[in-house]
Amino acid sequence: MMAVHLPYEHKYLRHKKKFPHVWCPGCGIGILMGSIIRAIIDLDWKKDDVVVSSGIGCTSRMPVYLDFNTLHTTHGRALAFSTGVKLANPTLKVITVMGDGDALAIGGNHIIHTARRNMDMTAIVVNNNNYGMTGGQFSPTTPEGARTSTTPYGMMEPNFDVCDLMSGAGATFVARGTVYHVMELDRIFKRAMEKKGFSVVEVLSPCPTSFGRANNQADPVDMMESLRDDTVTVKQATKMKQQDLEGKILRGIFRDVDVPEYLDRYEELCQRARERLEMNQ
Amino acid sequence: MIVPWGEEELVQGNEAIAMGAIASEIDLFAGYPITPSSEIAEILSRYLPALGKKWIQMEDEIASISAIIGGSLAGAKAMTATSGPGFSLMQEGLGYACMTEVPIVIVNVMRAGPSTGLPTQAAQGDVMQARWGTHGDHPVIAMVPCSVRECFDLTVRAFNLAECFRTPVLLLADEIVGHMRERIAFPGEDEVEIKCQPEPDVPIEWYEHYHPTASNVSPMARFGTGYRFHVTGLTHDAHGFPTRKVEEVMAKLGRLKHKITRRLDELEDVRLHGLEDSKVVIFAYGSVYRSALAAQQILAEEGMKVGVFRPVTIWPFPDVTAKKYLDDKEVVIVPELNQGQIIHEVERVTLDAVRIVPVQRIDGYQITPEQIVEQIGEVV
């Protein structure tokens, strides 16, 4: 997918308007933005039909660079805005990109209820373990013990597992990828986007500027290599011994189930309402 | 037929608001239950699906206002309804809709606060919150109904103004008006004018989402129509892209202000009763206006003439008209269900020689005509 689509990626960017972008050297968000574009090209979705929404933060600056219908909303609320967009025009393909703080702290209530409703949309949660834009404070995904600008003595609280949380809340497609494994990420994004129902993809992405520097990993290459060394696919994990899996993070698709989608159910509800009110034309 | 066009019926204020929304061809309602506004959501949940329109109960009020903003951007006429505590939560989205110039309607059926307060009782405590509740300078249009028929009419007007001005419009009802039942005559279907923001007709590559125009409002494209644009709460240029350039920042914020302040005549809506030959005027709005009219009647029977000045559109405040009619009066009585909110606006616009006298109540009960009469007796 990458080799085929790479030459066309620039056609999906707002070159004249918005570059250079805001992301730091060594950041992974640009890599996964390319991955999103390639998945959209591969699905042959028309630019006019795609809405990319976001909340607030480094990840949420992404829509401005993309030549789609783009919506940069308020902190944590992107999925609520997306819900309104999809309700108003169900033919639109709605993709929401959020950081870990945006999606899981201030947006935690919205993401679990969006998962429960199962509206046909895709959410991408970029997990860089901290709030990058505001100077590297801890987020709900900061690992225990990690240093951030608000955990100078180490992170005391337990963290969320995004994929477990989303599976529990009812998302019909749940997966995790990293910006190191880009071709795998292309395929996961495509699967998530074409899935009928609410899909969530967690993407592990390095933040050398904020999180790395506070945790002896200021070199972006080191952070990228840890994504390679610290993760294994679900398939690989089945062949590994328990002690070898210690400390490893799983990649791949964790959940892919078929459940009636919200707007399909809503159509049935409309029919029931018409019958009850005897408004059948 | 859901809206009883041209017929007389006994309906509740909240029901009339729901009917007004249907009459305005609402496409999307998103809300969260809260007393005393819940009937609006309940009635719409019954009818909107049957009409093939969208209705959704969100996880909170922040999500509700966010959903209607998203829906409006994708082409829906959209509304939410709430009360004080929910209105507080909606301030974030209200500011976003002002900044991004998205037409939406927000109904706030005011109840007594602060905080959870008296959920089932009336107040006018959110008048200043409606004006200044969200951070930063921003335009606001707010209207205050006093009767069930007005709940219908002003809901229709709220949708029309939201479209024409590309901005959120607030309907500040209160618990008394919302829960009151009156037999009202609905207008005929052809008597109600429904206005829509025009679609752009320029070639796609020329489109600017915030194009400067004489009216400071430009035709608005929606998602999915081929006009691809960017929407952000960051201060933005005519295309909608973030900017920090001083001239672009000032152009945006100036336009945001002027689209209201230079079209005040389209927004102003006041009701004047017996102002010509009276030295005393009651300045009242919303349900309290009914007590003001009753007080005027009582005093007329006693041989005393007092005038009544009522703003229907409360924001923007009718500065010029209020000054014109109040500056030559001796006393202006301002009854309101709070500890003094709109009274400061009356003081601001009138000459120092005019004596401004409050009548205030915050216990959840209505100000009675007798209270107003008594206050007038004390000062005159």
- Total number of helices of chain A: 13
**Biggest sheet overview of chain B:** 8 strands, mixed
Count of all domains of chain A? 1
> Which structural class do the helices and strands of chain A define?
alpha/beta
Number of strands of chain A: 10
User: CATH architecture of chain A, please?
Assistant: 3-Layer(aba) Sandwich
Spans where pLDDT lies below 50 across 5 or more residues of chain B: none
CATH class type of the largest domain in chain B: Alpha Beta
Tell me the strand order in the biggest sheet of chain A. Answer: 2-1-3-4-8-7-10-9
**What is the domain total for the residues of chain B?**
2
Identify the biggest protein-protein contact and residues per side: A-B, 43 and 47 residues
Strand content of chain B: 15-25%
Report the span from N to C terminus of chain B.
53 Å
Order of helices and strands of chain B: EHEHEHEHHEEHEHEHEEHHEEHEEHEHEH
CATH superfamily of chain A: Thiamin diphosphate (ThDP)-binding fold, Pyr/PP domains
Q: What proportion of the residues of chain A is helical, as a percent range? A: 40-55%
Q: What overall form of chain A do the CA principal axes indicate?
A: globular
Class derived from helix and strand content of chain B: alpha/beta
At the first level of CATH, the class of chain A is: Alpha Beta
Oligomeric organization of the protein chains: heterodimer
Give an overview in words.
The complex is a heterodimer of chains A (281) and B (380). With 281 residues, chain A is an alpha/beta fold. Chain A has one domain: Rossmann fold (3-Layer(aba) Sandwich). Chain A has 13 helices and ten strands. In chain A, the strands form two sheets. Chain A has an eight-stranded mixed sheet with strand order 2-1-3-4-8-7-10-9, with helices on both faces. In chain A, strands 5-6 form a two-stranded antiparallel sheet. Chain B has 380 residues and is of the alpha/beta class. Chain B has two domains: 8-191, Thiamin diphosphate (ThDP)-binding fold, Pyr/PP domains (Rossmann fold); 269-379, Rossmann fold (3-Layer(aba) Sandwich), CATH 3.40.50. Chain B has helices at residues 13-23, 38-47, 61-73, 84-89, 91-100, 127-132, 148-165, 175-179, 246-261, 264-267, 288-301, 319-326, 342-349, 369-379, and strands at 8-12, 28-31, 54-57, 78-82, 105-112, 118-122, 141-143, 169-174, 181-185, 230-232, 270-273, 280-283, 306-311, 313-315, 331-336, 355-360. In chain B, the strands form three sheets. In chain B, strands 2, 3, 4, 5, 6, 7, 8 and 14 form an eight-stranded mixed sheet that branches. A five-stranded mixed sheet of chain B has the order 11-13-12-15-16, sandwiched between helices. In chain B, helix 3 packs parallel to helix 5. Chain B is globular. Chain B starts with 7 loop residues before the first strand and ends with a helix. The mean pLDDT of chain B is 97. Chains A and B meet through strand 2, helix 4, helix 6 and helix 13 of A and helix 3, helix 5 and strand 10 of B.
